[in-house]
Write a structure and sequence with these properties.
This protein is of the alpha/beta class and 306 residues long. Helices cover 25% and strands 28% of the residues. It contains seven helices and 19 strands. The chain has helices at 11-22, 57-70, 119-123, 133-136, 152-161, 181-189, 283-305; strands at residues 2-7, 28-31, 44-45, 55-56, 74-77, 80-84, 90-94, 98-107, 111-113, 129-130, 144-148, 167-171, 193-196, 199-205, 212-217, 223-227, 230-233, 237-239, 269-271. A hairpin with a 5-residue loop joins strand 15 (212-217) and strand 16 (223-227). The two termini are 18 Å apart. The structure holds NADP nicotinamide-adenine-dinucleotide phosphate. Residues 116, 148-154, 156, 173-174, 178, 200, 235-236, 278 line the site of NADP nicotinamide-adenine-dinucleotide phosphate. NADP nicotinamide-adenine-dinucleotide phosphate (NAP) binds at residues 116, 148-154, 156, 173-174, 178, 200, 235-236, 278.
């Protein structure tokens, strides 16, 4: 029986582990087969406090993992394939093979940006293809960019990117935006933003870095190429919560609902990071909520044992 099992090895999970390990909870952290979370797919991280010269995303995650290990976090590599939170002890099944029982669980499974689904999009991620303007916009000073999507995220990313880019083309699959009026107006009034309506990205072009996109007009069928140095995909995020469906309270988009800090609808189960945050989605906010979850778990254990 474990005091605490943490699911997820991004900034939220690892920060929870650092705090829990230092509080002598001997946490077990289950890291998926692709350890380290979304930061492992980015290049340089310049907005994480404490690194004045910036740090590469994978390096930052390696440091966080080493810090969690130093205080005694135990790591288990595998994917949690099932959970049973209906009764205590909480039970987790890993890779359909072994089960672990726990008094408390912190869910820090993150969220995944929804990709368009093109092979070259995947290949050039981190080399011009990005899903985070806040993280990567700075690298495109003086360049032309495209943003894919027609929702608030796409408007927000495009508007933000005009701080750096000379031109931002929003590629949207319809001739009407989904974004709220205010966000639409802001983008439409921005002289650096252009729109490619009724268009989808057929392919991302470039050998080592992005040089453009091939577009298809879904009404006329016309194929065209648009030169750009970066492609920002903003067609939505998906929280990684399929595993918990039916067991834990979630909002209509599948984000875990938290209250009183990081508590979920199940006593002893806490959620931290992007899995419960559709708004900020930053490494530092994820780390902050990981710290909160560890403190919440520690207090839960104290009160249930005391
Ligand atoms: P969203 O509202 O779901 O919009 C996704 C957009 O991507 C839609 O325009 C959609 O097209 C398009 N899309 C979806 N799949 C696509 C595909 N396979 N290929 C091409 N285009 C595709 O997602 P979001 O913009 O990330 O916003 C999520 C939530 O966060 C919303 O509730 C939003 O209001 C909120 N948000 C708020 C703010 C803010 O207020 N500051 C900022 C960001 C997000 P269709 O329109 O044709 O479906």
């Amino acid at each position: 029986m474990r005091n605490l099992v943490i699911i997820g090895s991004g900034p939220a999970g690892l920060t929870a582990a650092i705090y829990a390990a230092r509080a002598n909870l001997s946490p077990l952290l289950i890291e998926g087969w692709q350890s380290g979370g979304q930061l492992t797919t980015t290049t340089e991280v310049e907005n994480y406090p404490g690194f004045a010269k910036g740090i590469m995303g994978p390096e930052l995650m390696k440091e966080m993992r080493a810090q969690a290990e130093r205080f005694g976090t135990e790591f288990l590599t595998g994917d949690v394939s099932a959970v049973s939170f209906k009764n205590h002890p909480l039970t987790l099944t890993i890779d359909d093979e072994r089960t672990v029982q726990a008094k408390t669980v912190i869910i820090a499974t993150g969220a995944s940006a929804i990709p368009i689904g093109l092979p070259n999009e995947k290949r050039l991620t981190g080399h011009g293809v990005s899903t985070c303007a806040t993280c990567d916009g700075f690298f495109f000073r003086g360049k032309e960019l495209i943003v894919v999507g027609g929702g608030d995220s796409a408007m927000e990313e495009a508007t933000f990117l005009t701080k750096f880019a000379t031109k931002v083309s929003i590629v949207h699959r319809r001739d009407k935006l989904r974004a709220s009026k205010i966000m639409q107006d802001r983008a439409m009034k921005n002289e650096k933003i252009a729109f490619s309506w009724n268009s989808v990205v057929e392919d991302v072009l470039g050998q080592d870095v992005v040089t453009g996109v091939r577009l298809r007009n879904v009404v006329t069928g016309k194929i065209s190429e648009l030169a750009c140095a970066g492609v920002f995909v903003a067609i939505g995020h998906r929280p990684n919560t399929a595993l918990f469906a039916g067991q834990i309270d979630m909002d209509e988009k599948g984000y875990i609902r938290t209250h009183a800090g990081t508590a979920t609808s199940i006593p002893g189960v806490f959620a931290a990071g992007d899995v419960q945050d559709s708004l900020y989605r930053q490494a530092v906010t994820a780390a902050g909520s990981g710290c909160m979850a560890a403190i919440d778990a520690e207090r839960f254990l104290e009160s249930s044992e005391g």
